[in-house]
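note to self: dont lose this again. the chain is below, predicted strucutre after it. 442 aa total, dont forget to put it in the shared folder this time
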Amino acid sequence: MKTAFISKLFDFLISNLTPIFILYITVQLIYILLLPQQYTSDALYYYSLAKECYESNQFYPAAQHLYEDYLVAPFYINVLVTLLHIYNSTLTITFFNLIVNILQLFFVYKITQKYFDEKTAKLSAILYMLYLNTIGLVLLNYTELFFTLLIISSIYFYTKKTTSALIISGVLIGASIAVRPAGWALLIGYLAIFSFNLFKYKKFEYQTTAMIAGVLLFILLFGGFNQLHFGRFIFTSTTGPVNLLLGANEFATGGFNARVYEEGNAGYIANPDTLTYIQTGDFYFQQALEWIGQNPVKWIGLMPLKLIHTFAYDDMAVSTLAGMEDWNMIQSVKYIFSGNRKEVLPSDYLHLNVLYMLLQTFHHVYYYFFVSLLIFCLVDRIKKNRFDENFYPHILFVLIGISMIMVTVGAPRYKYPFIIVMLPFIATYLKLKFLEKVETEN
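---
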């Protein structure tokens, strides 16, 4: 009965894809035009860096950033700087995010269509639009949305296999690395596929050089660009050491914990303004390595906690949709079990609190349904040994990316690219097990 309900629901949604897409875009436009943009945390930091560069008519990193703790997402920050030069407003960034979101949906659709069929492609588009974080991230200023577009578009061009497409795919990988170091996961995945094919078939694929050429082209051009205005060949973030330390200290929980920076602790620096980002990175790296060397078992034991911090709940941007940016799912759970609930309510109005809880509940039920489908899909493929060439770039990116999180630190938004990249396979499993199964029974 449940299977029949799910089948009818998704059949209805698929048959109304166009009006749903129009509604999806309309909702985002309403939010963009009516909801004031108030960046916090990393989103505010990225915006502040871009604003500094815009006001001083420079690109990032600028001279004043030499003494920052680290350099972050240089390509993304420079995109923000360019957007502010077009029109100096957060609205410009938000409209850019809307375009990125639409392009991301387009590539998910096209990849699924290429791998499977039209109905599965439409189903993947529906799954994408029902995932509320795809709307919420448009309103924020995190790197995940743009980074995921670069990853999914790189995979799309990779599937074309022509020399020009592989060069473009490589350029997009290079750009993704310049936004988030997790871009290395896809490059390593591609190289693993090429190496396996070389070992298995004893034949070198000349297209391999086309992709590598694309990666090197972007890195050399972007790194050279930064060399000209900053004096150093920078093409990616230097956040590796600080992330390693966050996941390797006596106060580590698997997620972000600022205690490590407090005086007397491993990450404390008395005069941070006197150290360059290189010196600070070296300090963090040595502190992390020293702790790992002294506590190898504890460090390994933290790895599952990093995955829990990443996958256990999924409020990357849903609270933003509710206009309650300072709240998240964890605070909602604390509210439920709190003895003095009035002090931890997100709003002074009861109906807003109820709507917020309903929104969180709907989203997390959908998220856990989503993750369950992915797990069942992977188990099904393992049992039936269904690992075709289309599957490898996606799953290797996810597995290598997760490994990077286990070594460093976890956070809910880090999983967003993994979910989007796996959408074609979640869609085809859902179609096979629910939609086609019901059709066969009838």
